[in-house]
Fold this sequence. Notes:
Blueprint (H helix, E strand, L loop, with lengths): L1 E5 L3 H14 L2 E6 L7 H18 L2 E4 L4 H8 L6 H22 L4 E4 L9 H15 L2 E2 L8 H10 L11 H20 L4
Parallel strand pairs: 1-2, 1-4, 2-3, 4-5
Helix pairs in contact: 1-2, 1-6, 4-5
Amino acid sequence: xxxxxxxxxxxxxxxxxxxxxxxxxxxxxxxxxxxxxxxxxxxxxxxxxxxxxxxxxxxxxxxxxxxxxxxxxxxxxxxxxxxxxxxxxxxxxxxxxxxxxxxxxxxxxxxxxxxxxxxxxxxxxxxxxxxxxxxxxxxxxxxxxxxxxxxxxxxxxxxxxxxxxxxxxxxxxxxxxxxxxxxxxxxxxxx
Length: 191
């Protein structure tokens, strides 16, 4: 099986890549993440992912970085968390599926399900639809149980680790959540 593996960043690639290398004849990583904001963050995540993939002997294909296409895809859902995320998955997995089909891949999978902050059900729905639309197989894996090991290994490797999903809205939401946690700790008398 020739597998195209959509990946969002280096730390999220570690555990899924190990599993897919063990079951597929060929694994090629596709970096299609126009949701990542700002452009400097996109470059930093891409560099981290590429460095890890190179060390593993894996090929990375980068599709065009097009934040305008992401904004168009998300549209009025931008401030509606789960709906925004589904539209984002639809765009990125759709791009990856089209590339995979056009280049002779049998299947598509993603690393997105390693994050406990993502919706595996929404990822599965969008991945299945994207793969079916182009006539390839969707390989569904929920990697959330591997998240702690991925964090440990990425820290051990000195990888850049981001503190938000990628888009400007998730960056803002993550900052608000961190501030709320700090306020709760202060209220309880902890630093």
